[in-house]
Specification:
493 residues; alpha+beta; Beta Polymerase, domain 2; Hydrophobic Seed Protein; Hypothetical protein af1432; 4 domains; globular
């Protein structure tokens, strides 16, 4: 093995040069950069990684050569060795994937099984034809730089067109429909008409007969979640998921979303149908570079409006709670619906809890008329908001509010729409470091026990002291809190 350099690579060009040297040492003459790294380069983005395909060697031969160069992990697909993941001191931590050129043919429904041919006799052209979309079906010789483009993919990148490689591309794996929408979201592509027709045909895989029987879905919920979240994180997520709505993918995999489609809100605050409002709120979230939690919440925050709706005396629909009828409002119902939807997709528990909490709280009244309050009242309201929401979630909660309110009219909100919200955001930012939790108090349970308090009285006193500090942070000094605790204990019968 050649001596490793002392420092890691700086940038993709340096990595490419080291790969040229390494593959020459490995005796790999026909080796190509393939797929997404080339697409990203053509789009003017720095590739996040480099994947290589090799022609003219067997899998065992490639593994032996790679092990002379560095640490080589076997790459296995469908129980077949198809390449290696090479790690050296100069590769990224995840290594570099070097795979044999191969063909794949689906032999089961929903891409549940497929036959692989990977060997020295498979050409790079055959490998490219097995890929999903033309913008990904690209190869460039690592050593001499010549391109292999069997489906005019470079022109499609330039024209920003999403086009399937062949007529059976989506039939081979219907999940490619959603993968294509992820490319629309990240690369601002327009869908080729024939590809759109094929997407409509194969989107049936995302519309199971029984949405709650996830074990019988044509495609696994986990795979769908991965692609949905990739789509959500692109700058064109709203447009891509608008296509998903039109294809029935959103209503099929998230049945809680179905009642929003075409739903007239009949509200003085909204001119859009409910589904268009949700997508516009998502667009506002992407424009603000929001977290994935906020993007999910923007997409789902009003899904329970149809279930919560009631008619007011003026003929307009209301979505607030009706305690006299035992009916909760759409925010509470929406939090439960979002949790159910994300559980069905088998999202991580942290994601489920965070999105559900954001939606449950999204109708908070704290900022109403806020700009006209005096400074003391503003501080008190802001601190109680941070206490209730939590410091770790307060930024996301505020951003969801802004996206919701800015997502009501396609032409944008009216002038001055965020006067109260902006004032509230500024004071929350100022007060977020104020004492707002029991752990922030200047005294603790041991101090109260030394005063003679025991059992539940300790907890009750700490909560009462926190209420005092939320009203007046200056009270958060030991002497003041101990005096207040003594007074409380003397008042206790």
């Amino acid at each position: 093995m050649p001596p490793a350099p002392d420092t890691a690579v700086d940038g993709v060009d340096a990595l490419r040069e080291r790969l040229r040297d390494a593959t020459r040492r490995m005796g790999l003459d026909e080796v190509y950069e393939v797929g997404g790294c080339l697409r990203d380069e053509l789009l003017g983005r720095a590739p996040s990684d480099i994947d290589l395909a090799v022609v003219g060697v067997t899998a065992d031969d490639l593994l032996a050569r790679a092990r002379r160069e560095g640490r080589a992990q076997r790459l296995v697909v469908a129980d077949r060795l198809i390449g290696v993941r090479l790690r050296t001191r100069w590769t990224p931590p995840e290594g570099i994937e070097i795979a044999l050129a191969r063909t794949e043919v689906s032999t089961g429904p929903g891409h549940t099984d497929f036959a692989i041919r990977a060997g020295a006799d498979v050409s790079i052209e055959e490998d490219l034809r097995r890929r999903d979309f033309t913008v990904n079906a690209l190869a460039r010789h690592l050593h001499d730089g010549h391109w292999v483009d069997v489906s005019d993919g470079r022109a499609d990148v330039e024209r920003r067109i999403l086009r399937m490689v062949g007529p059976r591309t989506l039939a081979e794996d219907p999940l490619r429909v959603l993968r294509g929408l992820a490319r629309v979201s990240h690369d601002d592509l327009r869908i080729d008409p024939a590809t759109w027709d094929a997407m409509r045909e194969h989107a049936v895989a995302f519309r199971p007969d029984d949405p709650d029987d996830t074990d019988r879905w044509p495609l696994s919920p986990e795979r769908i979640l991965i692609e949905l979240e990739k789509t959500l994180m692109g700058p064109e997520a709203a447009r891509a998921l608008g296509y998903a709505r039109d294809l029935g993918i959103l209503s099929g995999t998230i049945p809680e979303w179905a009642p929003t489609v075409g739903y007239e809100q009949r509200s003085g605050n909204h001119v859009l149908t409910l589904d268009d409002h949700l997508l516009l709120a998502l667009r506002r979230a992407t424009e603000a570079a929001a977290t994935l939690d906020v993007r999910w919440a923007a997409l789902l925050h009003d899904v329970a409006k149809p279930a919560a709706a009631w008619d007011g005396p003026d003929g307009r629909r209301r979505y607030s709670p009706r305690p006299e009828h035992g009916r909760p409002g759409h925010a509470w119902l929406g939090g439960r619906a979002a949790a159910t939807a994300l559980r069905r997709l088998r999202a991580p528990r942290r994601r489920i809890d965070a999105v559900a909490a954001l939606i449950t709280e999204h109708m908070y009244p704290d900022d109403e008329g806020f700009a006209d309050l005096d400074e003391r009242a503003q501080g008190r309201i802001a601190r109680r908001f941070v206490h209730r929401i939590g410091r770790d979630r307060v930024d996301d909660q505020l951003l969801l509010r802004r996206c919701d309110r800015a997502g009501k009219r396609p032409e944008g909100p009216p002038a001055g729409w965020d006067r109260d919200l902006s004032a509230f955001e500024a004071v929350v930012a100022r007060e977020r470091t104020a004492p707002v939790t029991l752990g922030d108090l200047a005294i603790g349970g041991d101090d109260l026990m030394r005063l003679g308090l025991r059992g539940p009285d300790v907890g009750r006193s700490l909560r009462a002291l926190l209420e005092l500090v939320l009203d007046d942070p200056a009270a958060n000094v030991p002497a003041t809190l101990l005096a207040a605790a003594r007074e409380m204990s003397s008042d206790t019968p």
